[in-house]
Amino acid sequence: MKPMEAAQSIITSQFPNCDVALLGGSVARGEATKTSDLDIVIVDQNLTSCYRESFYSNGWPVEVFVHNFETYKNFFKMDCDRGRPSLPQLVSEGIVLKGENEIVEKLKREANDLLNKGPAKWTEEMMKQKRYFITDTLDDFIGASKREEELFIANLLADLLHEYVLRVNGRWLGNSKWFIRVLRRYDEQYADQFVAAFDHFYTTGEKSKLITFVEKTLEQYGGRMFEGFSIGK
To answer: Topology of domain 3-117, per CATH?
Structure first.
């Protein structure tokens, strides 16, 4: 069954009284793969609480994100506070399966406003703290002599660097496949360098290229952070 048909069937059979239903995710973006699922946002004014559920239907894996007109706002805020606006993104890109135009437009407008605004700006103290953690992790990486340790320090280094560069530049974060996608949206050339540096280490075990890449990135934001750093003093 085609995705739109399958999604519409789910709404008809399981959520017939909902006010809004949107199909988001890779299917909505036209980027579906053989492992893609149907990401469906449901808004129902009669619900007293929200929930998320996964199941199979019509040959498709399905994830539904079910809310009322208050809980979706709470999740919009929580997602934005963590820097990864998952629900606003689903609503923004969602294909309408059900819903009055005025209500759907309001939901999408709220989502788009949040996405366009970007995440809250980090304080100077937060930027110093995050730069310190990158410096500390880089030193652990440089000093490590066991391959098994180097691998997982590098993983952490990638996460910290990704978070820092995007957040200080007012960009949203992403994880899994969105890790590199959001980085490319920010700076295609930097994303290429990021991938090349980590790929070189993972492939060869040679660390110098990755160390240089991290140090050059830090230099753009004030360099390594250690001397004089303090929390809570």
So the answer is: Beta Polymerase; domain 2 (3.30.460)
